[in-house]
Amino acid sequence: MEEEKEPPDDASAADPTAEPESVDPGSFSFDSHGREAAQRYQRVQRLYSDYAYALGSILEAALGQANIRVHTLEQRAKELSSFQRKASSASEQDPSQPKYPDPLTGITDLAGARVIAFFLNDLTPIRAAIRSQFQVIEEIDKTQELEDEGRFVGYQSHHYVVQLKPSRVALPEYSRFAALVGEIQVRTILQHAWAEIEHDMQYKSVSTLPAAIRGRFAQLAGAIAIADREFQAIQEDEARVRAEATRSIQAGDLERVEITASALKEYLDARLGPDGRMKEWAYDWNARLLIRLGFSNLRELDELLNGLDDDALSRQVWGGRQGQLTRFEDMLICLLGGKYIQAVPYQAGRAKRMIEKGVTVPGFTPEENAIETEADGDESGFPDEPSF
Asked: Would you call 387 exposed, middle or buried from its count of C-beta atoms within 10 A (0-12, 13-18, 19+)?
């Protein structure tokens, strides 16, 4: 087998914009055209790989600076086999001629990046970040394009053909990318799922679908769009509920506040003081436990805790002030006693310690609730997560 030569690190060994050899239209060979283009691309593929990495790095920094959370950010240089297939394709207007007379300049996604967002509302700030960081040559709304081609609109995506801005290519580390273009795709998770499945099934047009499944495919395309809108609506409602809970807690109107992880954190931060060491899952754990114990709103919890000094209790049991959730759990054990231990049996050792320190734990008798596992009194208040 002939040894494959390593492609050069930069564009100096080959000019990606060089004109391809002329071919007699009457005897045009698409296979030869694709092979010749692939040979040229192979010599600069590493350059495009570096360019794709640069696109991804710039995007990642821009999204982070704008505090935009995304599901996935990925980048890649086009694979050689994929490039050759695309370079060998025929023009839709004149099938006797190639779609890309010069594939290295006509194919714009040799370097590509893809941003997959969680929600529809995330797309607008992502697009703004792209426009702020790159020189946008072309913006393509694939939804409209596919409608014009008679394809299903489950695939909804925006594609941006971009170049680096002059101010960036003036920097030494970016100067070798000055003449290159790349493509950035932006879509939601559900849009991406449709794109991957549709690509795998290889249906390009509504008219080529078997009649038996054409209607089902159309319904699914509509369901994808509806699901995207519903997820967005749920996110907005969840944010609204959180904001209302915060206002109610601050106003002391606790009866209106349901027991949720975020509401419990807001309440405990206000009552016991904030503790940045606590993890989100710990509040979720305690919220689920409170619901299991019969609490439905924060007013019921607040009425239970009233009159008990968390700081004094913590110092009596542990000899010092413990973390927020440890103090909260100590209060629950002290006030609910056996009912709490019945729900969380491994905390019996902790209840026994409290009794030994002179704290009353109603409805709990150490001899009847012997358990080997002792609570270690760490800041999390969660030696193990119970299964309920």
From this structure: exposed
Q: What percent of the chain is predicted at pLDDT more than 70? A: 81
pTM of the model: 0.69
**Beta-sheet pairing, 111-117 with 182-188:** parallel
Phi, psi dihedrals of residue 163, rounded to the nearest 5°: -130, 160
How far lies 68's CA from each of 72, 127, 156, 268, 369, in Å?
Answer: 12, 11, 20, 28, 50
Please give the CATH topology (third level) of the domain spanning 11-16+28-204.
Beta Polymerase; domain 2 (3.30.460)
Q: Where are the domains of the chain?
A: 11-16+28-204, 257-369
Q: Mean pLDDT across the chain, nearest whole number?
A: 85
pLDDT in tens, 41-94: 999 999 999 999 999 999 999 999 999 999 999 999 999 999 999 999 999 899
Sign (positive/negative) of CA torsion 209, 214, 218, 219? Answer: negative
Predicted local distance difference test score (pLDDT) of residue 197: 76
